[in-house]
Amino acid sequence: MNIRFTIILLIIVAILGGWYYSLKEKDNIGLDHLIKKEGQPEYVGSKISTTVYDLKGNPQYFAQASNIKRYESTERTEFSQPFIELFAKDSTQKQWKVSADYAEITKEKILNLKGNIKLDALDPASRLQQITTDTLTVDLNTQNIFTESAVKSIGSGFTTTGVGLKGNLKQQVATLQKEVKSYIEPTIIKETKE
């Protein structure tokens, strides 16, 4: 009888020990997700929009995205399905709207775009109306643009395709680097009677 009692007590102690250990493990799991791990973003958001201003209080760009991740250690922000509006320097007038599948802004204010990129001029009188490509880098400080991908640009009276592009959105200048093909639309010049 003494042996049976000892075995029953050992079984009860083993069960209680296992139960206590399982509770302790669940407590640790609950706290692990609260601790930021190396390489994870400081904050994550959905359906976010923001406007960035310069030191004079003028807007530089407006950005919105379906998802955003901000990494403070590298001062880098990632956007999923971004929509960005670029403003004219020292003005509140919007010059360009930009959309893509993915974007990243570095601490130097360099915007790297990837996938289905489309830049549309918001001024109907702009010489350069639209640029489409798969990758594009935009310096948000100067609005210089650069890509080595295939590009299609549409402007007033022309459509141009090629590979590689350098330009500036403020100056409405875009130079294709190679394999350039241009299609010029005929223009009608109205005569004035004097």
Automatic annotation (TrEMBL):
Subcellular location: Cell inner membrane
Membrane topology (UniProt): Single-pass membrane protein
Location (main, coarse): membrane
GO molecular function (one): glycolipid transfer activity
Biological processes annotated in GO: Gram-negative-bacterium-type cell outer membrane assembly
Superkingdom field: Bacteria
Membrane spanning residue stretches: 6-23
GO cellular component, one term: outer membrane-bounded periplasmic space
InterPro entries, per database record: LipoPS_assembly_LptC-rel, LPS_export_LptC, LptC
A Pfam entry, by short name: LptC
Key words, A-Z: Cell inner membrane, Cell membrane, Membrane, Transmembrane, Transmembrane helix
Binding partners and assembly: Component of the lipopolysaccharide transport and assembly complex. Interacts with LptA and the LptBFG transporter complex.
Family: Belongs to the LptC family.
Function: Required for the translocation of lipopolysaccharide (LPS) from the inner membrane to the outer membrane.
UniProt name for this protein: Lipopolysaccharide export system protein LptC
Gene: lptC
